[in-house]
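Structure in, sequence out. Go:
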């Protein structure tokens, strides 16, 4: 009888364990910098891909529904796309089914002179509008690290790092963070600067909480403290930036390791990395009031995190977070379920990865009961885009 009981217990535990399975991505050889978005009826995957026998790169995408990928389509193909491991394009769907794609396009001779371009599709990606320029300052400098988030009535909010106050052609002056809205006709409104001095090259994070944008980014104090700040739109306008948590990470240069946000209703989950005190830590914190305040940080790493985080809400009480964890052999892409109250679940190995920059940033999306994770694999010969499904 004891043997039967133990066997039944082991079988139940095994059935409850998360299942990670690989879904071969439709991206071509050399593809990298993937992004995933949960559509109303499936998963949208986008990526950058070199075009054979040319100097061009292409922003391409495909959708995953009922266990099958659609044929890949191209949004834009150019020789002057800015291709970067940390600053990469995205495609999202708005509340009315329109698709909004953003990419980066060079605007000058210096290494980090590029603009943000946006195109819109009203026929599920079959055709795209003429590109519009998101940053309209006319400066030949850095504009990027964009996050797009659907608005409740249609269109998207866009937040980005904007170098219009920096010296053209030089890494001097202060980076800013901005926000604007874009409707399905390509009209830009509500363009506003939210912070006049931020870290220069960390990803931004944005979510809609209670129908209004909450934005997180890596700030930069006069003393070179580069902790995570949050700014939010309220009924009375934009809040002043405030620290998500006082980590006290003093660092002379940009760590290229920004925060991410997701929300269900007014419940917000934030994920970020810090190496204050020369010790890397990966955190998650929750807000119950649309990002006005956050609870105490929850440590979610396994002791040697690299960061490069993403987070998604599974429901109003639980988030799932992904990060890169350094290992003796390189790195692993890991995931962990984090409840708002209670103990985080054991970490899950999603895939072997690399600590190199070329491994990029994994991105996640929740579709139904499944979590989809997209990342870049690099070997000595080429790069590949991978997608895994985590069934919790």
């Amino acid at each position: 009888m004891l043997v039967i009981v133990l066997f039944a217990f082991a079988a139940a535990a095994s059935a409850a364990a998360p299942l990670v399975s690989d879904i071969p991505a439709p991206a071509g050889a050399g593809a990298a910098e993937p992004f995933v978005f949960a559509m109303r009826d499936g998963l949208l995957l986008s990526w950058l891909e070199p075009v054979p026998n040319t100097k061009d790169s292409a922003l391409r995408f495909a959708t995953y529904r009922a266990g099958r990928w659609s044929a890949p389509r191209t949004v834009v193909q150019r020789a002057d796309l800015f291709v970067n491991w940390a600053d990469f394009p995205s495609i999202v769907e708005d509340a009315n089914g329109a698709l909004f794609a953003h990419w980066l396009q060079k605007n000058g001779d210096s290494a980090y002179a590029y603009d943000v371009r946006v195109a819109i599709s009203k026929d599920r990606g079959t055709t795209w509008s003429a590109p519009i320029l998101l940053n309209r300052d006319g400066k030949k400098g850095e504009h990027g690290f964009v996050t797009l988030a659907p608005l409740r009535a249609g269109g998207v909010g866009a937040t980005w790092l904007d170098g219009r106050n920096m010296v053209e052609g030089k890494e001097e002056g202060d980076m800013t963070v901005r926000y604007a809205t874009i409707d399905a006709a390509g009209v830009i409104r509500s363009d506003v600067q939210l912070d006049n001095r931020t870290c220069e090259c960390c990803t931004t994070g944005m979510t809609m909480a209670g129908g209004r944008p909450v934005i997180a980014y890596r700030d930069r104090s006069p003393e070179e403290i580069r902790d995570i700040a949050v700014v939010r739109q309220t009924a009375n306008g934009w809040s002043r930036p405030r620290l998500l948590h006082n980590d006290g990470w003093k660092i002379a240069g940009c760590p290229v390791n920004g925060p991410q946000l997701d929300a269900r209703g007014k419940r917000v989950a934030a994920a970020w990395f810090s190496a204050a005190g020369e010790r890397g830590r990966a955190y998650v914190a929750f807000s119950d009031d649309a990002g006005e305040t956050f609870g105490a940080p929850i440590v979610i790493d396994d002791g040697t995190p690299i960061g490069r985080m993403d987070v998604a809400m599974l429901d109003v009480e639980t988030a799932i977070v992904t990060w890169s964890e350094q290992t003796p052999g390189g790195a692993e892409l890991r995931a962990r379920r984090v409840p708002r109250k209670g103990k985080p679940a054991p970490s899950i190995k999603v895939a072997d990865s690399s600590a190199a920059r070329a491994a990029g940033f994994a991105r996640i999306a929740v579709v139904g009961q499944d979590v989809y994770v997209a990342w870049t694999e690099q070997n000595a010969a080429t790069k590949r885009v991978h997608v895994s499904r985590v069934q919790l």
